């Protein structure tokens, strides 16, 4: 790699690591803290989900206008806004219980999400520009730092919360994210502008829509676990907030460890990307059904089973997720989109938007089902979504294979 590529990789890794720590620290203690203030499980799910909804809108808009705004400016400004909102969120425990607390949580999360969407959407586009021939490998490498952020965030947040109270986890991680602003300001290259392409044209491709549905189911499962797993573990498994943070390592550790391996496989053997999505999606569906597990299995909730299924979820989500971005870029180029920052901005914006849609759906709908029924049935719904995505992709693969056979005959 050239010096510029190495520096870009460092910058992207710092964004992934610090952003994911800021995002994941809420899981072990915030749902229970909000519950003490009289917030319902459905509203807790909305507080988690509104972040993803605003990221969805921000990704679509910013991905469209990345050429005019500038990728580097979007990353730096996004990190600055997100770090400030993270620190601010740490002082919301001073607010009185009830409606005011909920409204301030929602507003802060919305602004934080817009900053996050600017940074992440631009980072995907810059990665595709600097590493045009190895995008899956690079994304796989960066997912190591995503995994590290997800691994360290919950136990770090749980420990800081138990040791120093509600404010310190957010102040610490917000300052950590702010430290990446000057680093990225110095390191990142200025992208060369290119012509514009259309979101509508990109979304008319059936293959793109199927991949988007896969991405949606993956992020929906992660968002669901963020909003509901901690309360389930505290009430059903009798774990403390600190122990819940350690429990979440079972999800993020295999995800981060397997990412570079699947990234290399995806780049070296592009033909297996579809099968990676199918196999990973099937494993995700089965593991969510046994996470609770579903009441129809008549199996009692046990700690070892929950940990095992979280490990399978982390590994299978990684297998399904890593090939999706590279496959979307390849599909865009196959359909006449030029190889430039405009196309990369559209694809990264669409990817981030669909990911965010799942992150909104998972906590909100999952939180509502959990409140109405229980965690076990809600996890089963996530498994059913993953299975449906597998069926669609598998049907597409078979249809393509039949057409090829017909052409040969």
* Proportion of helical residues: over 70%
Largest sheet: none
> What would you call the shape?
globular
Rg over CA atoms, rounded to whole Å, is 20 Å
Number of domains: 2
What structural class do the secondary elements suggest? mainly alpha
**CATH architectural arrangement of the largest domain:** Up-down Bundle
User: What is the residue-mean pLDDT, rounded to a whole number?
Assistant: 79
CATH T-level fold name of the largest domain: Growth Hormone, Chain: A
Strand count: 0
User: CATH superfamily membership of the largest domain, which one?
Assistant: MFS general substrate transporter like domains
At the first level of CATH, what is the class of the largest domain? Mainly Alpha
Distance between the termini: 45 Å
Could you state the order of secondary-structure elements as H and E?
HHHHHHHHHHHHHHHH
Quaternary structure of the protein: single chain
Pick out the low-confidence regions: none
Strand content: under 5%
Keywords: Membrane, Transmembrane, Transmembrane helix, Transport
InterPro entries: MFS, MFS_dom, MFS_trans_sf, MFS_Vesicular_Transporter
GO molecular function: transmembrane transporter activity
Subcellular location: Membrane
